[in-house]
Structure formats: C-alpha cells, structure tokens
Predict the 3D structure of the following.
Amino acid sequence: MKITWLGHSGFRIELAGQVLLVDPWLTGNPMFPADRRDEAVAGATHLLVSHGHGDHSGDARILAKELGIPVAGIYDLMSWWAETDGIETVGFNKGGTIRIGEVAVTMVNAVHSSSVPGPNGPVYAGAESGFVISGEGHAIYFSGDTDVMADMKVIADLHAPDIGILCAGGHFTMDMRRAAYAAKTFFDFRTVIPCHYRTFPLLEQSAEVLKDGLPGVAVVEPEVLVPIEV
C-alpha cells in the first residue's frame, strides 16, 4: 500500500489494485506543485469526496471528466453532480459500504459543515463525512474535516483501523492536541498521518504536539508527492 499526500487533505491511496484520489484539491492548492499534476493523478481508478467545500472537492468533477472515472460521496452531492455535470457518480450515505474491487469503503460520520458557492451565498451540499478504507489487511480511517466526537468509538469498535489520516490544523477542524486526544482515547492506530495543516498561516504548521501526545505510535508528517509505504 502507498499513501501519497497531495497537500492539504488530498491523498492518493494505492491499495489492492486500485488508485483512489481522496478529496482532490489540486488547482489553486498552494502546497501542490502544478507541474506534477499528471504524476499525481496517473492511473487513478476512483475519486472519493468527503464533503462539498472547495478545498476538498475542488478538482473532483474536472478529474472525473478528464479521466473517465467515477466519484463517490454523499448521496445528495453526487446526485446533483451527476445531473449538472453528466459525470459518473456513486452516491451513498453514512453507514453504507461500497466495493471498489477488493477495497471496501464505508462512509462514517464527521462533525463539520458542507457547502458549495452559489450566486447568493453558500449552497447546502449534503452532509459532511469521513471514510474507512479497507484492503490488503489494513483499515484506514480518513477523518475528513471533523472535531473529536463520540462516534469515533463506534468507528474503532466496528472497523479497528490501524492507520489514521486525521485533520489536525485547528480553526476549521480539530487541532493537533485534539487529534492526539481522539487517537489515544478511541483508537489503536499503528500509524497516524496528519493533514489539513500547513496550507495557510491560519493553520497549525507542525505536528510536534500530535507526536508528543501519541508515544509509541508512528506519526508520519507527510511530504507532498512522497509516498508513504505501509
């Protein structure tokens, strides 16, 4: 398995013969090198979108059209995109699981908000979510944008994820301290990868607090387009 950070909350996950692009925001992402776009999306088989905010869904429709691959996410948003953009979508909802070859993707709860820009202000884009992505004997908990929540115990009990990709930048999501609390209180991760940080000065710039809060856990600060092999 390879997990490659695309900056902010975007990831390329190569797992069980599939290449998933999760929350792909490439265009305008200050952390993503535009001249390496082809490398980032090469061979992608599916797109996953956790919620409608542009820093998560920004390139999903473009890539779905360009690559001819489906995008999966919350039913409301997927239904809208299928109608307005004519792209292939897979709409499901929290607690639901879809199969992508030998990979299982379960949509789980998150506590945040979800909208897209409209002519008169933000337009509701279906509920926010996270994902548990399972394959090759691993389960990855991709938190999406969220704060700490009691639902994390349910996610841990049902899926026992060994890898956590956790938003941890603060201001819009839980920060490093709260992400560390969530990880040690609810989960038994072997590996934790922080995200939704470093993108803007407003967000946390270091994962040291997360590392200090999780002794014995491999906290990997990702570098853009440098694969993490698990």
